[in-house]
Design goal:
globular; MetI-like fold; 0% strand; mainly alpha
Length: 305
């Protein structure tokens, strides 16, 4: 082979290798950038939780004398937990049970109602269906804080303020959950399956609970996760609806502790407020992680189907 031919061949090989190398380098730089961004987001998200965990292990005096980003000389986590449940005649346990009641009845009921309504609107044809769809979309644009005062006036007229019903009944309505199930059911459940079940003699309720609900599992778990988190962290609605501490949820109760601790002449209890906040965060985090696996498995099953 001549020198000209070998030189041309080497240029061709270099030109052929260059395009494949440049995208690989770009992919590597992109991966490194994404890794850095995701690491910063992770630290930003876990930073408050780390601060809460660290300071829950300190005594009241260590909170003022040591750095907030590291543990103190005395590990007092279990002592602080015992003090939280013993403080003010054990009202923290009552607040915890109230919160569980609001979540089980309110969030569970909201999820079931949203699933039933969304499925019905997606699979049944009736007059006014488009108007209902427009109303649901319209309610999504209204902030919950705007409805707080009208809700309070309504419940006050009905004599339901300062009762669990004042928190549970508004929590039963989830326009976002209804819309999510509606959109999901329209595509996830074939009409042919429903018609086949009707031809076999199955009733509508049996079709829903035996066939449709299994297909709606990803949407059901997603709505349940959003409803549980929203009800557990609900603060403004119980604050205006409830006046008796015996019906407070954890969010309002801990806020009252913090306000009383900061008042003039009161005994400051910041270590109890911080430890109580940690005890408030742990159950909802565990519930979220527990429900997430069903959500992921449901999505995988839906993708296979």
């Amino acid at each position: 082979m001549s020198k000209e031919g070998s030189a041309a061949g080497s240029r061709i090989r270099r030109n052929a290798a260059r395009p494949s190398g440049q995208p690989a380098a770009r992919r590597t730089r992109t991966s490194i950038t994404l890794m850095i961004v995701m690491t910063l987001m992770l630290l930003y998200s876990l930073g408050p939780m780390f601060w809460l965990l660290v300071n829950s292990t300190k005594t009241k005096q260590d909170l003022y004398d040591t750095s907030g980003l590291w543990f103190g000389p005395t590990f007092s986590l279990f002592g602080n937990i015992a003090d939280v449940f013993a403080h003010d005649d054990g009202v923290f346990l009552r607040w915890f049970l109230n919160t569980v009641l609001y979540v089980v009845v309110g969030a569970g009921g909201a999820t079931l109602l949203a699933t039933l309504a969304g499925y019905g609107l997606a699979k049944y044809r009736f007059p006014g269906r488009r108007a209902v769809f427009a109303i649901v979309l319209g309610t999504l644009a209204i902030p919950a804080s705007v409805l707080a005062v009208p809700q309070f006036l309504l419940f006050s007229k009905l004599g339901l303020t300062n009762t669990p019903a004042a928190v549970i009944i508004p929590s039963l309505v989830s326009a976002f959950g209804l819309y999510l199930v509606w959109v999901y059911a329209a595509e996830a459940i074939p009409d042919e399956i429903l018609e086949a079940a009707r031809l076999d003699g199955a009733g509508e309720m049996r079709i829903f609970f035996s066939i449709s609900l299994r297909q709606l599992a990803p949407a059901f778990i997603t709505v349940l996760m959003f409803a549980v988190v929203a009800t557990w962290n609900n603060y403004f609605l119980p604050l205006i609806m409830l006046s008796s501490p015996e019906w407070y949820p954890l969010t309002v109760g801990l806020s009252q502790w913090a306000s009383a601790s900061a008042s003039v002449g009161a005994d400051p209890i910041p270590h109890l407020v911080i430890t109580g906040s940690l005890l408030t965060v742990l159950p909802i985090s565990a519930a979220f992680l527990y429900l997430q696996r069903y959500w992921q498995s449901g999505l995988a099953a839906g993708s296979v189907k």
